[in-house]
Specification:
459 residues, membrane, Oligosaccharide flippase family protein, mainly alpha, 2 domains
Length: 459
């Protein structure tokens, strides 16, 4: 099997899981906006943000090490799993003890419910990354769909019961993650692998050396992705954060494509890191990814107002104003992650941390400067520019790993037309917006032809 065909097959497999799960999660957005006020949505989004922040620290990013080490056939997979699993169990116990201390000091509503959501989400991530490292990609993708479907079912059930809506939200999350963990343990054969006596301190040290720099990196990535919520809550209020939280969900349409590819690319980048033709391979893959994402962004901009008016409640009608720059943020975020795989493939995880710090500093400074001046859109622009900085730095730093030849002419021209589309969107110039989309298609016609040829010539 050729490396391009393997990447395509993995992309399709991950695509089935991601498209199915993202579609279900997209359906959840109007449900949340119907039952939760903007203030309540802002609150649960902040709690979700805190959970996202806590997981890398509490778990020591051991799930990333499990993936990388499991992909290396020289390692003993059973030892890798149990070493990582014991680490997750110990971390969970410590977390609960901390919860007891916090509960005795301050009153936090649903504290232990939220903590168990964090714990089972952490376990789910570890198990998912481990089976991905074993390349059980079908189970991995199927689990994504099952997890999202369970969230939808439990959310609908509990929201229609005589329960506090915040309690219903978190309880639905907890049950979904618990059943997802059970699914992986049983159907991926992980349950047979559990043998805590196989814990190995030397393996743990090696995994920690790899994963430890990823902890602050994840925190810095969080700063660029999610810290905007705290700045908006401070400068504008929870209602503004609720609007921004919903606005950030809409680019998840683009993330369906990008997340699928990045998952498949993570495997290929590691497997092809020593290939003689890696410069050509990496360049072709990057330019095709860039072209595809730019086309999707342009298409979303054409239908953005229609999407908002049709799917969201009237109180969220202004959401479309804050989406365009978040779409570009996601574009540069994926460029950064694509290039960042070179650090992971070559076991140079400290490089990821260092470059993420630069982006986080830029993001914090710009949030302070732009949000008071431009409101919610200031956060969108700050996030976009921070990811742009990270991408540029990583492109420069990883040249000694691989030489990627970017199709700058097509990329810059497409980005220029997209910026014009954003202007047309704000001035309601619908026809010109569609014309610009057509021009972007023409600019990327060579890539479109390649995709069609690849689909037609399946051999």
């Amino acid at each position: 099997m050729t490396k391009t065909k393997k990447l395509l097959i993995n992309t399709v497999i991950f695509g089935i899981g991601n498209i199915g799960s993202k579609l279900i999660l997209f359906i959840l957005i109007p449900i949340y906006t119907f039952y939760l006020s903007t203030e309540q949505y802002g609150y649960v989004d902040l709690i979700t943000t805190i959970i996202t922040l806590a997981i890398p620290t509490v778990s020591f990013c051991i799930s990333e090490a499990a993936l990388r080490f499991a992909l290396d056939n020289k390692n003993n997979h059973i030892v890798i799993f149990n070493t990582g699993f014991v680490t997750i169990i110990v971390s969970s116990v410590i977390l609960l003890l901390i919860g007891v201390i916090i509960g005795n000091i301050i009153q936090v509503d649903y504290l232990f419910l939220i903590m168990f959501v964090l714990i089972f989400q952490m376990i789910n991530i570890f198990l998912s990354q481990y089976i991905k490292g074993l390349q059980k990609n079908i189970i991995y993708s199927l689990n994504s769909i099952i997890l999202s479907f369970l969230m939808l079912i439990f959310t609908l059930v509990f929201f229609n019961m005589n329960l506090n809506v915040l309690y219903a939200y978190f309880f639905a999350q907890l049950l979904a993650y618990m059943f997802s963990v059970m699914f992986i343990m049983i159907f991926a054969g992980v349950l047979k692998t559990v043998n805590l006596t196989k814990f190995n301190m030397n393996i743990l040290k090696s995994m920690m050396i790899y994963s430890f720099p990823l902890i602050p990196n994840q925190l810095m990535w969080w700063v660029m992705n999610l810290s905007d919520r705290f700045f908006i809550s401070y400068f504008i209020g929870l209602s503004g954060n609720g609007i921004y939280a919903v606005a950030s969900k809409i680019p998840s349409i683009l993330n369906i494509v990008s997340a699928v590819f990045i998952q498949a690319w993570q495997i290929s980048a590691i497997e092809e890191k020593d290939s003689r033709e890696k410069n050509i391979f990496y360049s072709n893959v990057f330019n095709n990814l860039s072209s595809f994402l730019l086309i999707i962004i342009s298409m979303i901009l054409c239908f953005l107002k229609i999407i908002v008016d049709y799917f969201l409640a009237e109180s969220y009608g202004s959401v479309w104003r804050y989406v365009p720059f978040l779409l570009l943020s996601l574009l540069f975020s994926n460029f950064s992650m694509f290039i960042g795989m070179n650090y992971l493939a070559n076991m140079k995880t400290s490089g990821i941390f260092k470059t993420s710090i630069y982006g986080a500093v830029v993001n914090i400074v710009l949030n302070f400067l732009l949000i008071p001046q431009y409101g919610i859109n200031g956060a969108s622009i700050a996030t976009m520019l921070s990811f742009l900085v990270v991408w540029i730095i990583r492109m420069s730093e990883t040249r000694h790993f691989v030489q990627i030849k970017v199709d700058w002419m097509t990329m810059v021209s497409s980005l220029t037309f997209i910026l014009l589309q954003i202007v047309c969107l704000y001035f309601s110039l619908v026809v010109i917006n569609y014309i610009l989309f057509g021009l972007i298609l023409l600019l990327n016609i060579k890539y479109i032809k390649r995709w069609l040829k690849l689909i037609i010539n399946r051999d």
